[in-house]
Every structure is written in structure tokens, then in C-alpha cells.
Backbone:
């Protein structure tokens, strides 16, 4: 099985009322953990890579790892997350990514359309699909920070024009999710704007939508980090019941990054606190990798409902 685009995944997810997990990986170990989870759950999966992570891996190493992972018998797309420029998106298309996101949402509407359209024309000529964004997701994603606590929700009146003029394959919408670990304060009630989502669905029937910043930030995972020397602020993530509801609708792709990082960090901190004399790398990366794998499997099965939905040729 070679790397695939998200087209087939999204069509089946939309029709089947489930979503595909798109997981941000930072290391070979987290990459492998997500792929092992997909294999064991027979779930389609999207591996998300930011520009900084491309640099961290090195382009040639990254592509060799991705192609090897796909050949283990999983339905996998390799996606550039939050491409900040047309040039960055084109570079990842040339590398062999099967999906790219151009994030020009910080610009005005016309500039967003112009940049997105240029990426679409280049990517489609190479058989690659494109995601773009309308509205601003709050929080921090790689080097991007949105200061407004609630961001700027996607305007349903703009989505049809944006999709038609750009030719994108999927659209990231801002309906209340947030990047980073601290999405909501403890005294706040997380709330996704399903009213906005419903209006967008009506205007774009059959079109796949995307949710960014959708980690649930489990309390027990934050607690584990802090129990063993961490100083993470307590906060609320996106409730899993809301993500399940989004999956039943037009949301075909749900992005998760923070949960994996918090899970990994907690397990490593626990290991060193418990075995301070150890220095063998595999001894502390193995339990961390297994914990991440189990978390991803749970999301595939119980939140995104994508288990058993992979199509592997």
C-alpha cells in the first residue's frame, strides 16, 4: 500500500458518519505509535507534519519513514499541517506529500483565495489534495498565535464562494476549537458552535469539513505530567462527546496533537522519577510509545468511529 490522498477516506467518512483522525507527530516514535494504532484498529489515518517537523526529521528521512509505514498495510495520507506559504506547500507536494494545507486565514478574504487557488492549481496538477481554512482557530499552532480567546468563527455566507473560487478539497472551519493544551479555563464550559456547522453543511452538502485544535486534554494525563515534576496549567480540552457529534455530521477530519505530546511527556517523566538510575533510551521511550498508541486506538474506536473502516489494496 502506498501513500494515498484523503479523497476516498473523506467520501466514505462523510457517507458513513464518522471521521478520520489526523495526528500531529514530532518524532519517529510518535509516528510509529500512530501507525501501529491504525494497523491494529484497521483504521484509515492521516499523519500530519508541520514545516518545523519536516526540518526536524529532514525531508529525505521523513519521506522514507512515511513510505515504509504505508507499506506495512495501512491506509495513510501524509499531510502538511498549516503551510504558511505557497512555496512551502509546493515544496511538500514535490517531496511526495499526498495532502497539503495552505493556511492563509490570517490574510483578508481575497488574499486567502488567491494564495489558496495557487496552491490548488499546483497540487492538483500533481495529484495532491488541498485543505484551507476560513476563520481563525484560537491558540498556538507551531509558530502561529491567535490572541483572541474565541477567535473569529467561520462565516457560513463566505464558504460557498471560497470553495468554488479556490477548488479546495476540504475546508477547516472555526467553530470553537483551539490549538494548544489550554483551550478552556476550568470555570468555562467548552462549546462547539454546532449551529454554525449546520449552516455550513446546508450550504456545502457533501463537502468534507475539518476541525483543528481538537485534543480533549484528559485530566489524568495532565495530572501525570504534574505529579512527576511538570508544571502544566490545568485546563479543559474539547469534550469527546462533542467530537463524536461532529464526526456524525460533515466533519471528516479531526486534528489531534496536544494529547499525544502530553501523553508522551507524562510517561517519560514517570519513568525517570521511578527509575532515576536508568539511561537506556529504549526503556523510557517504549512505555511512552505504547501509551500514545493506546490513546490513538481509543480515539479511533470510541471518538472518531473509524475502526474497521480502512481500505487497503
Residues:
Amino acid at each position: 500500500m502506498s501513500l494515498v490522498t484523503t479523497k476516498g477516506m473523506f467520501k466514505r467518512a462523510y457517507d458513513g458518519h464518522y471521521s478520520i483522525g489526523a495526528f500531529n507527530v514530532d518524532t519517529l516514535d510518535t509516528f510509529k505509535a500512530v501507525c501501529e494504532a491504525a494497523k491494529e484498529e484497521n483504521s484509515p489515518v492521516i499523519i500530519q507534519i508541520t514545516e518545523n517537523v519536516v526540518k526536524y526529521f529532514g525531508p529525505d528521512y521523513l519521506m522514507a519513514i512515511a513510505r515504509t509505514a504505508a507499506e506495512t498495510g495501512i491506509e495513510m495520507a501524509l499531510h502538511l499541517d498549516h503551510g504558511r506559504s505557497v512555496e512551502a506547500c509546493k515544496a511538500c507536494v514535490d517531496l511526495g506529500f499526498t495532502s497539503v494545507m495552505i493556511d492563509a486565514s490570517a490574510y483578508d478574504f481575497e488574499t486567502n483565495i488567491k494564495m489558496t487557488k495557487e496552491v490548488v492549481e499546483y497540487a492538483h496538477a500533481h495529484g495532491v489534495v488541498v485543505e484551507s481554512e476560513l476563520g481563525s482557530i484560537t491558540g498556538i499552532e507551531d509558530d502561529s498565535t491567535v490572541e483572541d480567546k474565541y477567535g473569529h468563527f467561520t462565516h457560513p455566507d463566505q464558504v460557498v464562494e471560497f470553495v468554488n473560487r479556490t477548488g479546495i478539497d476540504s475546508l477547516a472551519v472555526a467553530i470553537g476549537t483551539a490549538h494548544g493544551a489550554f483551550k478552556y479555563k476550568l470555570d468555562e464550559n467548552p462549546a462547539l458552535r454546532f449551529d454554525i456547522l449546520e449552516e455550513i453543511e446546508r450550504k456545502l452538502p457533501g463537502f468534507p469539513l475539518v476541525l483543528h485544535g481538537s485534543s480533549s486534554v484528559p485530566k489524568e494525563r495532565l495530572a501525570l505530567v504534574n505529579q512527576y515534576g511538570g508544571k502544566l496549567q490545568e485546563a479543559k480540552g474539547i469534550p469527546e462527546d462533542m467530537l463524536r457529534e461532529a464526526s456524525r455530521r460533515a466533519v471528516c477530519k479531526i486534528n489531534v496533537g496536544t494529547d499525544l505530546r502530553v501523553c508522551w511527556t507524562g510517561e517519560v517523566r514517570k519513568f525517570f522519577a521511578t527509575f532515576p538510575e536508568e539511561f537506556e533510551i529504549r526503556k523510557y521511550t517504549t512505555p511512552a510509545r505504547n501509551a500514545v498508541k493506546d490513546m490513538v486506538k481509543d480515539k479511533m474506536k470510541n471518538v472518531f468511529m473509524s475502526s474497521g473502516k480502512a481500505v487497503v489494496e
Remarks:
- Residues 139-151 have pLDDT under 50 and may be disordered.
- The chain has twelve helices and ten strands.
- Residues 281-303 form the longest helix (23 residues).
- Strands lie at 20-24, 45-49, 76-83, 99-102, 129-134, 139-141, 144-146, 170-173, 209-211, 251-256.
